[in-house]
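Example 3.2
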Amino acid sequence: MQECDTWDLPSWRSLDLEARLRWALAPEIPDLYRQALAREQWVQTRCYFARRQDLRPREVAQFAADDDYVIRLCIAKRPDLSPEQVAAFCSDRDPNVRYAIARNPLLNETQRQMLLQDPDEVVRQAAAKGARPSQTRQRQGQAALYR
């Protein structure tokens, strides 16, 4: 997708789900659409956008506090989290998010020990396995995403 002047962009609300998904994965996104993607109603679209390697720090922070655990799960795998975000994910209410952060190399030993005592068995198992570096994938014509 080509970078275009903001005035040439169709209204975000007029785009169907397929078009929104394409924009979430596009190598270049106009700022206006980045803002819309960060507030997108469709979880699938927000999830694709949240997995982008090129998220800006404020976008990472916004998604780290998202109400939907799927979005927080996407963010918990990132290698560019702040220490505060890592700590918040270690005590996230959802075990899937704690599982994801348990494998993040940013975890310190105190946090790993805490997750080894987690009430959820799968989280404990993930913490016992240790760090797993973030992996990325990039399909032709799309942005690089964390897996």
